């Protein structure tokens, strides 16, 4: 086993990484992963509001999002259990991707033919099917991304994933709303279901990763049913956790997990109050949509590309330091915007552009870092653990965001969210000085 060493490549070599075929495939899979998200949240909420579903009920629908936060509970199944016939044909990762994509498309077609004003319970079940299938797809796609490319290409893979995901958010957000306004919700959701064909086609044409250290498909089947279940449980569920701490040690493992939980606290906490802040500053919905959903998305994509190049050049951990600093500085720029007498649309554009660029940059570095933590023997389960963990503290702390604003002010709130990023910066600085042990099977062809 070796210690992690940040790759040193020229800037042209780092940029050339984006020409690889599996990077483009990752863009398509990122699109497939991002498409269902808004269709069971903001877009669905707009539909429910239009048919006069109560705000209380619309709020309850948001609980469907918990599915994404608890995917770690069925990640061991996706990681270890073969699908009859399909896994033999496509392989472990692609078979689960395809099954999940068909689940998403089926749920979206079901929503297209449903009327929430008449059959709200059916709509809830169909939305849950979409969310569950989407979270399952995330597990398989994340595992494929980590196993299909070597460590020095994980930054580019993360950037391509984020780029595809952001494009999908535009399609499922503004695109679906436009179709609903011009035609109907049935047309909107039918077109969205058809768009899942991008993921289906990609799953069929990509290669199954060659480097898979799992022995799940060939585990001994002797002994009683209880003994077989105990062996499966240890390998699939306990094994990933035992492996993580065995490779890193308990102390360093806890520090790494603390960093994962704290790194996105700043932007998650700030994000809750972003739209209320824009409105309280006097900006109209059209101005917010034009800047945040239009130009802002382009800056996010630009940030992901730059982040991928920088990760390939200096490594994920050092890129995280830059990303963390960028996020803190952009939160401070929101505080500046809050105290300016008349910042205008130009001020809003500059602040949102900086925020989205830093978010794209930091997100790419963070995904690349999490990918490097996994052992290919437990890719899906370990990454699902990390991706579930990094949202939890932020969501818990974000619950008090409104209280901070009401009790103090927006400038104080943004200073507060900026300060929340400092612990993560201190931890990653410590981790750079104390290199972790690379996962077994880390060198991928």
Automatic annotation (TrEMBL):
Alphabetized UniProt keyword annotations: Membrane, Transmembrane, Transmembrane helix, Transport
Ranges that cross the membrane: 23-49, 55-74, 95-112, 124-144, 164-181, 187-206, 252-274, 294-312, 319-340, 346-371, 383-404, 410-432
Pfam families with a match to the protein in the record: MFS_1 (PF07690)
Gene Ontology cellular-component terms listed: membrane
Organism: Oceanococcus atlanticus
Species lineage: Bacteria, Pseudomonadati, Pseudomonadota, Gammaproteobacteria, Chromatiales
Subcellular location, record wording: Membrane
Domain Major facilitator superfamily (MFS) profile: residue ranges: 22-436
Main location: membrane
Descriptive protein name: Major facilitator superfamily permease
Classification via InterPro entries: AmpG_permease/AT-1, MFS, MFS_dom, MFS_trans_sf
Example of a GO MF term: transmembrane transporter activity
Gene3D superfamilies, A to Z: MFS general substrate transporter like domains
Protein topology in the membrane: Multi-pass membrane protein
